[in-house]
């Protein structure tokens, strides 16, 4: 065995060992940040280090500092782990080391993205012929979608924003729910709109946009209008009424963008597809692969119903770029980066591994397990604040202080990992079920651990069991 083969084999074996044992370990890290920094620290060596020794040192330094996000009991954020085929494909993508800018420099990467993009649009219920850019995640996907809207709306008003910028441009109205994800605000900053341009719309009791208030806001002004909708509220999983909302936006001649980082996947299962009814009526969409498709980080998708607008908003040409500015939009014409990894290989592999029916079962299973989680915690005395419509559960124990202590206790205890959130002024445990390997037993074990931690916190403080609203 040559040295490179031995090195990569050792790395693959170490990765497989970690994955194989992820369900057995404490989910959270078991080392403090200062100790980790010391392990990785020290002066940079003057002389080269053999690659095999570097790998050994890396494994030793990272030991106990990894959070088992790939495992079945990580419920913090919406992190799905990664499927076996997608993981292997991503390892190959690293080994192949393709610069996925266009089909001239990376023909296999281009073919994989083109086919995977068509499959994605199909399972997500998007119109045939939409363009798709493979980006890093929801932030980049939202930014691309809003850039497409900016180009289209201002071009229709006679303004070339790519040439002339926003100074002196017609004002674009930006309308979004008060329950929008924070990446919408970040995208508006990056694109030069600023956040003060936002016209907020009320949300209903579960976090979906209030259609009557959306109509009121749209009727209250004139001019080019961009409406940001949501499939999958980050706290509750709620989805906006896309059919009604997109209909209103069309009546006003506006652009509808759907932030569907995880909620767009509801379309892939007949059991949850009604949550995103009317999704095809929007103009652009953002979605993540490293969430519910269970591909490795980082992976996201920016879709646009008008490929020409998509390319006009994102592409650039340069004499040194082979194939630049010729023919139909290339991979790099649809995303912010020209230097980019070949993310399509892992997406293609995940979709092949699951198939249409397997993907539908994955979405339904996570939805069912989230409801099981909520039921077990409610039966144990917790207050579940949201209607569990997708895969998110909000849980509260007593007041904010007690809830925060429960979160900290659960993270220390190790059976599962979840984070906290503030929703409508109150603190909650936020549980997101999105991993392909999570089972009923994992949910039951995790719910029991959460309730034990809550009881310990309550007993330590001498509190009485809380009465919930």
From TrEMBL:
Full protein name: Glutamate/tyrosine decarboxylase-like PLP-dependent enzyme
Source taxonomy: Bacteria, Bacillati, Actinomycetota, Actinomycetes, Pseudonocardiales
Alphabetic keyword roster: Decarboxylase, Lyase, Pyridoxal phosphate
Classification via InterPro entries: Aromatic_deC, PyrdxlP-dep_de-COase, PyrdxlP-dep_Trfase, PyrdxlP-dep_Trfase_major, PyrdxlP-dep_Trfase_small
Gene Ontology terms: biological process: carboxylic acid metabolic process
Signal sequence bounds: none
Residue positions, PTM N6-(pyridoxal phosphate)lysine: 291
Cofactor(s) essential for the protein: pyridoxal 5'-phosphate
PANTHER family, alphabetized: GROUP II PYRIDOXAL-5-PHOSPHATE DECARBOXYLASE, MIP05841P
């Amino acid at each position: 065995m040559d040295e490179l083969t031995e090195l990569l084999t050792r790395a693959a074996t170490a990765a497989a060992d970690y994955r194989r044992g992820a369900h057995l370990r404490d989910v959270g890290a078991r080392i403090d940040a200062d100790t980790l920094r010391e392990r990785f620290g020290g002066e940079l060596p003057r002389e080269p280090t053999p690659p095999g020794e570097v790998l050994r040192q890396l494994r030793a330094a990272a030991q106990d500092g990894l959070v088992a996000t790939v495992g079945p009991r990580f419920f913090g954020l919406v992190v799905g782990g990664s499927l076996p085929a997608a993981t292997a494909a991503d390892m190959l993508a690293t080994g192949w080391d393709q610069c996925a800018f266009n089909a001239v420099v990376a023909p296999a990467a281009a073919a994989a993205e083109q086919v995977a993009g068509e499959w994605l649009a199909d399972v997500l219920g998007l119109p045939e012929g939409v363009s798709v850019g493979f980006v890093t995640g929801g932030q980049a996907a939202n930014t691309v979608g809003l850039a497409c809207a900016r180009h289209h709306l201002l071009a229709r008003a006679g303004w070339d924003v790519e040439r002339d910028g926003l100074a002196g441009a017609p004002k674009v109205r930006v309308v979004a729910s008060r329950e929008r994800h924070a990446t919408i605000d970040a995208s508006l900053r990056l694109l030069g709109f600023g956040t003060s341009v936002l016209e907020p719309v009320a949300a209903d009791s579960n976090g979906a946009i209030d259609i009557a208030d959306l109509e009121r806001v749209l009727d209250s002004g004139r001019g080019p209008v961009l409406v940001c909708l949501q499939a999958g509220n980050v706290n509750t999983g709620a989805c906006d009424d896309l059919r009604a909302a997109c209909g209103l936006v069309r009546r006003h001649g506006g652009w509808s963008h759907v932030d569907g980082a995880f909620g767009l996947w509801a379309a892939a299962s007949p059991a949850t597809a009604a949550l995103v009814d009317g999704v095809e009526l929007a103009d652009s969409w953002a979605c993540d692969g490293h969430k519910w498709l269970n591909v490795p980080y980082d992976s996201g998708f920016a879709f646009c119903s008008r490929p020409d607008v998509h390319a006009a908003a994102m592409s650039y040409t340069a004499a040194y770029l082979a194939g630049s500015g010729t023919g139909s939009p290339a991979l790099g014409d649809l995303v912010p980066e020209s230097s980019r990894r070949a993310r399509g290989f892992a997406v293609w592999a995940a979709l092949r591994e699951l198939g249409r029916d397997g993907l539908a079962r994955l979405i339904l299973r996570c939805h069912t397990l989230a409801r099981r989680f909520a039921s077990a915690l409610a039966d144990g005395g917790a207050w579940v604040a949201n209607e569990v419509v997708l895969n998110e559960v909000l849980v509260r124990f007593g007041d904010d202080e007690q809830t925060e202590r429960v979160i900290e206790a659960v993270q220390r205890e190790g059976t599962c990992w979840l984070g906290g959130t503030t929703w409508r002024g109150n603190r909650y445990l936020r549980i997101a079920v999105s991993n392909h390997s999570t089972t009923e037993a994992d949910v039951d074990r995790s719910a029991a651990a959460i309730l034990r931690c809550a009881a310990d916190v309550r007993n330590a403080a001498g509190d009485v069991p809380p009465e919930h609203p």
